[in-house]
Model the fold of this input.
Amino acid sequence: MDKIVIEGGHRLEGSVRINGAKNAALPVMAACLLLDGPSRIKGIPNIVDIQTQSKILENLGGQIKRHDDGTLEIAFRDGENNDKYTAPYELVRKMRASICVLGPLLTKRRKAKVSYPGGCVIGQRPVDLHINGLRALGAQIETTEGYINATADRLKGTDISLKGKYGSTVLGTCNVMSAAVLAEGTTIIEDAAREPEVQDLANFLNTAGAKITGIGESRLTIEGVKELHGVDYEIIPDRIEAGTFMIAGAITKGNITLENVRADHLTAVIDKLKEIGVEINTIGNTSRVKGNNLYHNVDITTLPYPGMPTDMQAQFMALLCTVEGKSIITEKIFTDRFMHVPELVRMGADIRVEVSSAIIRGTPCLTGANVMISDLRAGAGLALAGLVAKGTTTIDRVYHLDRGYERLEERLSKLGAVIKRIRD
Ligand code: EPZ
Done:
C-alpha cells in the first residue's frame, strides 16, 4: 500500500486548477445508461472512483473512452444490452455511488440486480429511501443474498418524499430522478436533495431531453419522456476539492489561487473561512486564498446543502486544531464520521468527542506522526494537518485519498509543500 510522507511547515504559494466534481460525475456517468446515442462529458477527474464506475458501466455493455483532457466518451448500443443488468459485488463494494445505476437500469432495461453498496466507512448508510422511492414508481424490489433485485414494467409517475432521519438523500434523489425521467406521467419528488451535484445531474438529463423543473429546490417535478439522446456536457467544478485546497492555503498561512471554482457552491465554506479570519477573494471562477496569523476559533455544524458540507468536516477540523481557543464541530449527516480524530490526536491535537460533537482546543503546534486514513475526507484532513505539523507525517492507506483526489501530492508539491508518495 502506498504511503504519503509530508515534511510540515512550508507555506503554500501559487495556483492550482480544480477538477470536475467526482460526486457529480459518478451519477452523470450512470445516467448515460438512459441515453440513446453517445455522449461526451468533459471535466471528469482521473481518480479511482471514476475508474470503478467505468468498469461497472462496461460490465453493463458501455463503451467508454477516456481522453487526456478529462473528456469521457460513453456510449450504450440501445437494444443490445438488455440482458445486462447486474452490478456485481466485486465492483460495487468499492464505492457507494455505484448504487446510481439502479434507477437508470430499472427504467431503461426494466430489470436491475445491484449489490448492496460499500464505500467510505462513516456510519450507517442504508438505502431504504432509494428503494422506497423506486417502489413508489412501481418497481418490484426484493433483497436477496446481498443484492437488490428490481423489476418493473414502464414506471409510473407519482408523488414521492425522500425525507429521512438525517435529511434528504443525495444519491437517492439521483436514483429516483433518473428513474422518473423515462416514467409515464409526472413525478413530484418532495424533500429532494439540493446539492449542486444533484442539480448537475438534473441539468445533464435536461440537456439530453428530460423535463425536470425545480432544480436546486427541495421539490422537483419530472415530466416523463419516451427517450433521451446523447449530449456534450461539462461537469461542474468540485466544491469539496476546492474547499480542501482553500484550507491548504489557510492552514499554511499561504497565498494561493484556485482556478475553476464555483464560489456560489461554496458559500457556507467560504463564509466560515472568513469568520475564522482567512482572506478569500473571488473574481469570476478564480478564488484567491490568503492566510495570516490571526485566526479565531469557531463552531461548525454540518448540514445538507446549502449548509456546511459533511465532506468538509475533517478538513475544517485539521484547521481548527491549529487555531487558539475552543471550537466545536457537530456532525449532523453521518452517525460515525470522526474516525480522523484519534489520528489527529496522535499528531498532538486536543480533541474530545461527545456523541455527535467534537470539542477542539487549538494547540500552537501539531507534530508529525504515523497516521492511517479511515475514509476519503479523513485522509484529506490528515494531509492538511501534515502540511503544518512540525517534523514528518507519514500517512498510510493512501488508496482512500486516490478515490477522490487526482494526484493530490503532486499538486500540493507544485504549491510548495514538501510531500512525496512512497509506492509499495
Ligand atoms: C453523498 O453520499 C456523497 N457521495 C457523500 O460524499 C456525501 O457525504 C453525502 O452525499 C452527503 O452530502 C456521493 O455523492 C458519491 P446521503 P450519499 O444518502 O448520497 C441517510 C465523499 O466523501 N440515508 O445523502 O450516500 C444516510 O445514512 C462522499 O465524497 C438514509 O437514511 O449520502 C445519511 O445519514 C462520502 N437512507 C444521510 O441520509 C437512505 O436510503 C445522508 O446520506 C439513504 C441515506
User: Anything to note?
Assistant: The domain at 3-18+237-422 is CATH 3.65.10.10 (UDP-n-acetylglucosamine1-carboxyvinyl-transferase; Chain).
